[in-house]
Amino acid sequence: MREIRLHDTLSGELRPLRPRDPGRVGIYACGPTVYAPIHVGNARPYVVFSLFKRLLEHEGYEATLVINITDVNDKIYAAARESGVPSGEVARDMTARYVSDTDRLALGRPDAEPKATATIEPIVDLIAALIERGHAYSAGGDVYFSVASHLEYGKLSNRPLEQMIQSEDDQEGRFRKQGPHDFALWKAQKPGEDTAWDAPWGAGRPGWHIECSAMAEQILGLDFDVHGGGSDLIFPHHENEIAQTEAGRGAPLARLWMHNGMVRFEDEKMSKSVGNIRSLAGALDEVGRDALVMYFVSGHYRQPLAYSPEALRDAARSVERVRDLCRRLDRSAPAPAGLEPRARAFFDALADDFNTPAARAELFEWVGEANRRLDLGERVGVGALDEMLALLGLERLLEARFEEAGADGAEALLAEREAARAARDFAAADRKRDELAALGWDVRDTPEGPRLLRRG
Ligand SMILES: [Zn+2]
Questions:
Q1: Residue 17: CB partners within 8 Å, gap ≥ 6?
Q2: Whole-angstrom Cα distance, residue 348 to residue 325?
Q3: How far is the CA of 282 from the centre of ligand 1 (A)?
Q4: Ligand 1 centre from 125 Cα, in Å?
Q5: N or C, fewer C-beta in 10 Å, the chain?
Q6: Mean pLDDT over residues 320-338, rounded?
Q7: Where in the chain is the domain with CATH 3.40.50.620?
């Protein structure tokens, strides 16, 4: 079991992971608000934390990964108004879409995916505790957290008070709250909002921040090991989560705070509000999951990651290089002697603040050396390659074999998919892909054109 060190946003230091319960690690990462299909930027934490869990398991820990779903929110109400559909239906549809899109990444599901609307009782309980301890007050049916009551407020984001603007505020809220930096824990039902729950201070729904405090505590308990999410959530979301739990429970929320950098596209953070998004489903259609996963691990999780057609093509080429080697390996040959230090360095790099680009470089050293030996006529076995690929979510490269696809009509379907794509009829292209999947074929877009890959 290697010691795993992580950069902790709260202390600003590289710190060893010391689990609350020896041998067991609980991770909570903030998941999507389900009002639109997720984009490549939203998918980054899903990939980072799913793979980080693999590292923990590889090192012998029992790991629990929780990624929540925010399914009641102003953005969902707005999407419901726009489409004339009840907000609960928007949330249900977009949750199903999120699950099927992330399923296509084939990294497994988190151990728990709590929904805010299924956690109302624990949320109300935490708000009641905050009111009782004098850290929150109700005003006009809303409930606010009193920032002035909690002296440690601001310790995560470390920014001056005048820059602490609570972005979730609405207009009426500004007049109701006692302090300008106070934030909503409970929002009274407004006209046009079609979902509300009863609470001692009036019908309404939870604020975004309190949902995560309550869901994390309910599943992982207090003082759990790693809280993660995008760096855009440090303030106000995570700052507020910390304040709520510490003030309401008198205990820390999490031991380590692990934040991933933003995916950037056209020199800006990829976000729906900027309007520069690429949907996860679209990116998967374009290059396939192997190349997309390779793209995600090519950057250090804490750094911004540039999204571009070239970056995806580079990743697709890297995948091809590994796949080509895998076809040359001889499963009956012994593990290649002398390559163990590469595999060790690979895992050491991951244990050192989850440095996937450094690990990936070691993987390609391994690939290069194996190819050199094969060129010399040596037989080369799989050795540690399967472990390394599995850590990066690329284990399928070892199993993948192209097969003849004629008898079941897959090639005809592939041609129809290409015709639909050329006509920019992406819905029809998606249907053809689904039909191929039902026959047991994945479509992978390579620089030489689309190819069929036998599933599993
Ligand atoms: Zn959250």
A1: 3, 4, 5, 6, 25, 225, 226, 256
A2: 24
A3: 26
A4: 18
A5: C
A6: 88
A7: 5-260
Strands 24-29 and 224-230: parallel
- Cα(242) to ligand 1 centroid in Å equals 11
From the CA of 123, how far away is ligand 1's center (Å)?
Answer: 13
Say which range, 119-133, 225-239, 272-286, has the weakest mean pLDDT.
272-286
114 CA from centroid of ligand 1 (Å): 11
Q: Which amino acid is at 100?
A: S
Look up residue 362 and give its two tokens. Answer: 């070691």
User: How far is residue 406's CA from residue 411's CA, in Å, rounded to a whole number?
Assistant: 6
Burial status of residue 446 (CB atoms within 10 A of its CB: 0-12, 13-18, 19 or more): middle
Could you count the other beta carbons within 10 Å of the beta carbon of residue 221?
A: 12
Q: Quick: pLDDT tens for 276-304.
A: 999 999 999 999 999 999 999 999 999 99
C-alpha–C-alpha distance, residues 210 and 273, integer Å = 23
Taking the centre of ligand 1 as the mean of its atom positions, its distance from the CA of residue 30, in whole angstroms, is: 4
How many helices and strands (H and E) does the chain possess?
15, 15
SS3 category, 255: strand
Token couple for 216? 């994390």
> What are the backbone angles phi and psi of residue 386, rounded to the nearest 5°?
-65, -40
